[in-house]
Hydroxymethylglutaryl-CoA lyase (Actinomadura barringtoniae), 308 residues
Amino acid sequence: MKEPDRESVLHTTLVEVGPRDGLQNEDVILSTEDKIELIRRSVAAGIRRVEAVSFVHPQRVPQMADAEEVMAGVPRRDGVSYIGLVLNRRGLDRALAARVDEVNVVVVATDTFCVRNQGCTTAEALDAWDDIAAAAIEAGVPASMTIAAAFGCPFEGETAPSQVVELARRARDAGAVEIALADTIGVGVPGQVRELTRRVREAAPAVPLRFHFHNTRNTGYANAIAAVEEGVTVLDASTGGFGGCPFAPAATGNIATEDLLYSLHRMGIDTGVSMSTVVDTADWLGDRLGKPTPALLGRAGTFPAPSP
């Protein structure tokens, strides 16, 4: 398969996952009002897809206990889509009642991590996915699958590409509108991105592909650019680079929205998102969480520097 030139990729959509993945691993639990404000600022920056909440058991992820309240307060605008993460039918019922625009279902590619993350095996998670996807389609709500630990597992080691491909087929067969490949623990490298992109496209050629990278080993941005060079046009990122998985040892944050924007914009790729607004939001969020912002753009500034 011939790789597209960078210049041929004119637009990339960022999915802002800070309100969900960015907050779920933090010790500080933001107020409902602050979560809504984070989403409002993201939308004001130009982001049009936001993973706003997850509908999971509050004892397992207390940071997401107010999902319904957050969804009740988000700004509803034409062209803005709010994603709710669900793991089971109960979560889907909550998400539909809260009027999410999309549902995203996580299926972990390895059994050990899946049991720790969701309390079930990968096969059981796939059965739940089939049920959720059918019910979501019946309700007229798009459903996507995120294949977690697609690049490696903290408990089982390397994830076989064939396993990721099989999960992608199951996603396709159940009517997924999008498949997201997640480097949940940040072990992937660009060569893996290229291989998985090509293999998943062969298995599910009609289903759009998205990537979700963590920067645990400082490869997240290189991986994102590799995906773009393969023609992928949808990437997850988290304002400030906050985030991580509470069930993965030593997990660190997602790639930062503002740092990714810098690379994409310097490559001539349009995102429709204001870097300066995201930087300001990251500073605000760091203050609310009481910790330094992991992202670098807010420290170094843009280049060339804006005119005085």
Notes: The chain has a mean pLDDT of 94. The first helix runs from residue 18 to 22. The CA atoms of residues 280 and 298 lie 8 Å apart. The domain at 6-300 is CATH 3.20.20.70 (TIM Barrel).
